[in-house]
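Researcher: I'd like a structural prediction for the single chain below. Treat it as a standalone chain; there are no partners to consider.
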Amino acid sequence: MAEDVKNLAIFPGAFDPLTHGHLDIIQRAAKLYDRLIVAVGHNPLKTEVFTPDERAEMLRHHTNELTNVEVSIYSGLTVDFAKSLGARVILRGIRDNVDVHAELEIATTNRIIGDIETVFLMTSGDHILTSSTLIKQIVEIGRYDADHLARLVPLDVAKRLGDRLHSTKE
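Model: Treating it as a single chain, here is the predicted structure.
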């Protein structure tokens, strides 16, 4: 079993694409925990644009100045991954009441089956309506403008997203 680290949290997600909202949560959580693992997972309900390795690389690039933040790829249940690391906390970002409703069910289940607590951080006001799914839809439909999109995602991520989604249409 992994070493039990009291002040270790994991922040799981698909991060497809990485948004300023994700980075906001990561930067704020890095101040709250001695060690934060940003865990790149797979959501079978979503169509992924980037591979797990590509998403992890983008996360590493944008969090490299945070010395207590690590990026890891995992598969399977988040609660099992958290337990394998000895984490006691799963960190989740909340944008609105829809997120609260969905996340409460998952948090309760994780507590029952894994004895893992979930801590919610409210997304900052600037990012409250930022959604990776919506960003992908905007780019796919053809409303791609890297400069405008960079208000929602880092500019390099916006360019990669545009290149990826537009190259698949050709």
